[in-house]
Design brief:
Helix content is about 45%, strand content about 15%. It is an alpha/beta fold. It has a single domain, classed as Rossmann fold. The strands form 5 sheets. The protein has a 7-stranded parallel beta sheet with strand order 3-2-1-4-5-7-12, with helices on both faces. It has a two-stranded parallel sheet with strand order 6-15. The two termini are about 35 Å apart. The model has no long low-confidence stretch (mean pLDDT about 90).
Length: about 325
């Protein structure tokens, strides 16, 4: 089977889980994934390279994506939308039996609180949130192609974290050590997250469930631990695991949204190669509740998390100690 985006932590963890159970795995990515697996060094935007990498594969996990905030709308669109179109087209042409499209819950987050929410349809037409917008368009494209002839399911892992994570964990720790960590709304918003191993096992479960006639075909599922907690509690747990004794500043949600909007307007001109400290979309994400109903994934994919948040924090602390970080 083929996994795109093999340099990402989630893709690498999923690849190892599949390998360990006996699957033959091929990775496609631009750089070196650093794993002892078959690899194709190519860009997912290269349709011919994607098709050749997929040839002979019976399943695909499409995890390649441009993430973060830095970049133009076209940068995000070309990777996330065109790349997905290439994967879907190749899978259809080659008769691939199962496809899992890795999406994100942010495709349906419109700025208001999500409490026990379902995996609502992706929302498009947003400005200033290039990642969420491009992923929403990509998910719609992928699900629109799903059929019994192309069994495809979309999985939206929610805030994945764990040892080696440079996105959530790395940024929290880096900003705390630099004295730049702030809690929007005091960190009171209730959110759910996904421990890394749980996210990987969900992708494997979705891959196994994506069979012709299955209830999951053409549907999206939010994946999370099912343990909503205040953002402050999660951040304090991560900082404790990293051995960082920092008390974050607090910023009211309305102020954070206003500042984020201003930053969006000027940051690209001042420091286009650096991630802005805040955007309107990020402020809304940090200051509003977002947790989801776990029952659809459990019913249709046969998946449930096996590592609790507390167990994950213990593993994270052990990883920081073992690596001297």
């Amino acid at each position: 089977m083929l996994i795109t985006g093999g340099t990402s932590l989630l893709a690498r963890t999923t690849a190892l889980a599949l390998r360990d159970r006996g699957d033959d795995v091929v990775l496609l990515q631009r750089g070196d994934a650093g794993l002892d697996l078959a690899q194709v060094r190519a860009d997912v935007r290269d349709a011919e390279a994607v098709r050749e990498a997929m040839r002979g594969c019976d399943a695909v996990v499409h995890a390649a994506a441009k993430v973060g905030i830095v970049g133009t709308r076209e940068d995000f669109r070309s990777v996330n939308v065109d790349g997905t179109a290439n994967v879907v087209a190749a899978a259809r042409q080659l008769g691939v039996g199962r496809v899992v499209h890795v999406s994100t819950p942010s495709v349906s987050h419109a700025g208001h609180s999500l409490v026990g929410a379902a995996a609502d349809p992706a929302v498009t037409g947003r400005r200033g949130a290039h990642y969420a917008e491009s992923k929403a368009v990509a998910e719609r494209l992928a699900l629109g192609a799903a059929s019994d002839a192309l069994p495809l399911v979309a999985v939206r892992p929610h805030l994945v974290w764990g040892p080696g994570d440079t996105q959530l964990v790395g940024r929290i720790v880096e900003r705390a050590r630099a004295g730049r960590l702030a809690l929007v709304g005091g960190g009171a918003a209730l959110i759910d997250t996904t421990y890394l191993d749980n996210a990987a096992s969900a992708l494997v479960a979705a891959l196994d469930a994506a069979l012709p006639g299955a209830a999951c075909i053409g549907r999206a599922y939010v994946i999370a631990n099912g343990e909503p907690r205040p953002i402050r509690e999660l951040i304090e747990g991560i900082l404790h695991a990293a051995g960082v004794a920092v008390v974050p500043r607090e910023v009211p949600l309305r102020v954070a949204v206003g500042v984020g909007g201003i930053v969006e307007q000027v940051w690209g001109r001042l420091k286009p190669e650096e991630e802005p400290p805040l955007t309107r979309f990020l402020a809304e994400q940090l200051g509003t509740a977002h947790w989801f109903d776990p029952r659809p994934a459990r019913a249709d994919l046969g998946w449930h998390p096996t590592v609790t948040i507390d167990e994950g924090l213990q593993r994270l602390a052990e990883w920081f100690r073992a690596n001297g970080l």
